[in-house]
Design brief:
Elements lengths: L8 E4 L2 E4 L24 H18 L14 E6 L6 H11 L3 E6 L12 H9 L4 E6 L4 H14 L9 E6 L5 H15 L6 E5 L6 H12 L3 E5 L8 H7 L3 E5 L2 H6 L3 E4 L14 H19 L5 H4 L7 E3 L20 H19 L9
Parallel strand pairs: 3-4, 3-5, 5-6, 7-8, 7-10, 8-9, 10-11
Antiparallel strand pairs: 1-2
Helix pairs in contact: 1-5, 1-11, 2-11, 3-4, 5-6, 5-11
This protein binds phosphoric acid mono(formamide)ester.
The site of phosphoric acid mono(formamide)ester (CP) has 9 residues, from loops.
Length: 365
């Protein structure tokens, strides 16, 4: 999942692309750039999103305003090729709160791909209809393929504008808008990142929200504890990128809970478990992985009683949807921030849309 010189060439749905041309560093200026992965951002690159999200929140919580007319007639298309309750809905709400219009496409049942259109052609078609595209794909680097196809169409003189692509979750790879919203939630609670300790629990191999959050948390100076299963460890490329910020790796949730400021849970993403393949060895390995991981998740269930082991003032986050790993009986504990975390995605996604279209909300508060 991590981007290295060797992995700049990726295979997306049978198409080999060089993603180096679409993954620009996002420093002070995000205007016109794609947001594809957290490696585009360092601490200085993350802070403007936080500042803009604070401003967006002030505006939408002001009942006499409810929003801001920053992007009139500007169109966002949210193309959700995988199911979503939160992300697709919140990015379209975010665009409407900015005065623009937004269309949510859930699933591809009405797409001309059914007539044999390629993914790349499909992305160029959407780019003729929108000023910014957000997308979720089942394939790792699916949004990079979209950005690549749009780039080519611009270079060939076929498209008149380069439409920024925002990754709303790509397969087992990344979920950068979730991570930025998660960092905003942490900042709202602690007013800093430096020196805070984050414990992340679950499948670290295939859960994209974990990948993006860990990269973002390391960039802003947080210490990271990974509670992991031997069946789904943190990828070695990610370990390398986290460097000294990764302070511990083990499978003991209780030790991690006692020693952390932010506990981050995620469900078992078992939709990626391969249940049939011509290669029997792959099926056997997937079955063993799945059984081990399910057993480890059983030992990581957080409920109200277990939550009492955490420090007062610490917080618990979960990107949702949740399953058994987070018992609803914990919801009343003041440390639970997962609903606020969801709500925080609206101002953060307003910040992301505004910044990638070259606008600032801060100056309109
Ligand atoms: N957190 C998150 O990505 O939720 P959805 O899958 O519902 O969008």
């Amino acid at each position: 999942m991590a981007v290295t010189q060797e992995t700049m060439i990726v295979d997306v749905d049978g198409e080999t692309i060089d993603i180096s041309g679409v993954i620009q560093p996002i420093d002070g200026d995000a205007s016109g750039k794609n947001l594809l992965c957290m490696q585009q951002l360092n601490a200085e690159g993350i802070q403007p999103y936080i500042d803009e999200a604070y401003a967006a929140e002030l505006i939408i919580k002001n009942r006499s305003r409810n929003g801001i007319n920053l992007l009139p007639h500007v169109v966002l298309k949210a193309v959700m090729r995988q199911p979503s309750t939160r992300t697709g809905g919140s990015i379209t709400t975010a665009m409407r709160k900015l005065g623009g219009t937004a269309e949510l496409i859930s699933g591809m049942h009405s797409s001309s791909e059914a007539k044999g259109e390629t993914l790349a052609d499909s992305w160029v078609a959407f780019a003729t209809q929108a000023d910014i595209i957000g997308t979720r794909t089942a394939e790792d680097w699916g949004p990079a393929l979209a950005a690549h196809a749009i780039n080519e169409a611009v270079e060939y003189g076929q498209l008149w504008q380069r439409v920024p692509v925002i990754n709303l979750g790509d397969g087992r790879n990344e979920h950068p808008t979730q991570a930025l919203g998660d960092l905003f939630t942490i900042h709202k609670r602690f007013k800093r990142f430096e020196g805070l300790r984050l414990a992340v629990v679950g499948d670290h191999e295939r859960y994209r929200a974990h990948h993006s959050l860990m990269l973002g948390a390391a960039a802003v100076g947080m210490e990271i504890i990974v509670v992991e299963s031997p069946a789904a460890p943190i990828p070695s490329s990610l370990v390398e990128l986290l460097g000294a910020n990764l302070v511990a790796r083990h499978g003991d949730l209780d030790i991690a809970m006692a020693d952390t400021d932010v506990l981050y849970l995620g469900r078992n993403p078992d939709e990626y478990t391969k249940k049939d393949d011509e290669d029997e060895e792959i099926v056997r390995r997937e079955k063993a992985r799945s059984e081990q991981l399910a057993a480890d998740y059983e030992g990581w269930i957080v409920d109200y009683d277990r939550l009492q082991r955490m420090k007062p003032g610490s917080i618990v986050m979960h990107p949702r949807p949740r399953r058994d790993e987070l018992n609803p009986d914990a919801d009343s504990d003041p440390r639970m921030k997962d609903v606020e975390q969801m709500a925080n995605m609206i101002p953060m996604r307003m910040a992301i849309i505004a910044r990638h279209l070259g606008k600032s909300i801060v100056e309109h508060v």
